[in-house]
Amino acid sequence: xxxxxxxxxxxxxxxxxxxxxxxVALLTLAGVGAASAPPAGNSSFSIPGTExxxxxxxxxxxxxxxxxxxxxxRVVFKAPAGExxxxxxxKATVEKTVHELSDGxxxxxxxxxxxxxxxxxxxxxxxxxxxxxxxxxELEESTKDALEDAAQQARDAGLTVxxxxxxxxxxxxxxxxxxIGIAIAAVVLVITFGSLIAAGLPLLTALIGVGIxxxxxxxxxxxxxxxxxxxxxxMMIGLAVGIDYALFIVSRYRAExxxxxxxxxxxxxxVGTAGSAVVFAGLTVVIALVxxxxxxxxxxxxxxxxxxxxxxIAVLIALTMIPxxxxxxxxxxxxxxxxxxxxxxxxxxxxxxxxxxxKANMGTRWASFVVRRPVAVLLLGVVxxxxxAIPATSLELGLPDDxxxxxxTTQRRAxxxxxxxxxxxxxxxxxxxxxxxxxxxxxxxxxDVSDEIKGLDGVVAVTPPAPNKAGDTAxxxxxxxxxxxxxxxxxxxxxxxxxxxxxxxDTGAETLVTGATAMNIDVxxxxxxxLLPYLVLVVGLAFLLLIVVFRSVLVxxxxxxxxxxxxxxxxxxxxxxxxxxxxxxxxxVEETGPVMSMMPIFMVGVVFGLAMDYEVFLVTRMREAYxxxxxxxxxxxxxxxxxxxxxxxxAVIMMAVFAGFIGSSESMIKMIGFGLAIAVFFxxxxxxxxxxxxxxxxxxxxxxxxxKWLDRALPNVDVEGEGLRTAADRKHTDPDEDRVPxxx
Length: 744
Known about the structure:
- Helix content is 62%, strand content 7%.
- It contains 24 helices and 11 strands.
């Protein structure tokens, strides 16, 4: 591995014009494809294997032409103070609005509130339901404009009018904080390298990689049914790993220059050593993201594959374009420890001339402290993360609805008006589908189901069964007395399904519960059921991969256990902020409630991949030192001497990039941005910087133990670059090098 990448790095350095041309051409091609493709909307949502999806599919078969997946809108009217919606003037305004809404070419139906009993008991609130022939992502802008114009005319007449439903869903905005995150990354790079040119290389390559990845996703969005969230997440992860991977290779290049090597040789060695770590770190991220397919939720699978593709591009760019750009930069990229004139290079030179001994860097001093006090550091780190994880024991899962939108949106205001006028459960109606095909008395089965549901606790209203033309299937709408995301509503869904099972045993009619609320409940359950198999798959594959990289059993085991600590602590922080409301005002969280159902499994996937990044980057330097003859504790210190500064910079950059997405208007993006940022903090600074060296110090030589039979069976990928040392000029090697085995 190291030898192949060494040759690749030297080739890219020499043929830099050709390499740069290829990547610019790919960026241009992806950009043209994105510009000519239709815009991405909200991808269709399906959850195969669930009752809610089965009922939805049945509706499409038995009720043809009703556009079961068509967009909906609820136009909610509120009368001025002291008036009622039944007053003549207000009623005339609503009827005029309903008439205008009915004229749209994509409108399937509009329900008049005065004919459909859609006026609140106190008479102050009414709503009109609008159904469309196409989904929300397919609605034309003219249709959305007509909906908003009709609402505005009613406002001009004196009514308060808000619009709920999915007809007006917009592409989420990330806000200015994303740019701030990139700016922070730039500052950290300048401080780390002490050079504007060296700092600019990781940013440039990361932006090119993300540009290719996101543009490709945009170009394929319509064909592959990719939602707008897919490209946002790919950009978030692609930026973070793209900067980090390039950072490690540029840092190693400067270290090789500091040892006196020529620039082409230094570029080859940087790609051969740090590049090997980049390859395996990237593989762990890709495994974690692609592994999301085991959940069998198409939307989540597409998000994972798209993000994994962007990570793969980041790896390829780091291995090829970074050495090419280093060739262009020439002497403007200084050796490690030497800064440019703008950042104090002259002062550094004077100190060097004075002959003062080099002072141990912060990483060396910290590692020396940890190996002297490993038990205290280990206990402090584990107890601290355990305390942060305590809120996770109160984790409640759900999917966001209009009730989680900011109060500034019309969807949220419509949600609140409907809750005030008709009760909390009105925003989450349950649709019960009764399949009586093949039974002797379908109508009796419909009535039995309706009567059974009316007798359940937590039910406010049950509509009469509405059969299809064939008379073999009917729908029943159930209004709970609790809000859609509550535990009480979830219990009601299970109660209806249990009652339906008894009725099916008696009559043969199948009862299914669907609708947005039931869909959310089924998604949460499916994600919970898939979490353990997913964890076993991803951690198992990565564990095997790390055994090959580190040629050790205990080091990968320690890496996996440390990851579990950091991800649990991060979930605890997410619960504290988004569910309990701690610091919610500071982070712009306007509505607290259940944590998004996808959050635990998504965090497991992404955080595991990122955690292994730091594990590979930091521990490979320790492994390299140990293989070259250093004692275990000294190898830990050496690893920190060369890697701690860069890993710290990488973690700060990744945190800044993820935190930049907290400013998104989409609650899911906001939560993921915060969760990943705090997870990187816990994993990089507590687990990898404290717990890992403490454990390695306690284990000593046992940390690198590997059964002889396994040692013989495993391929030697040579991540530490042992093959390069034996092939290089002898003046750069240790005198006793030949007596140190490459495998231990």
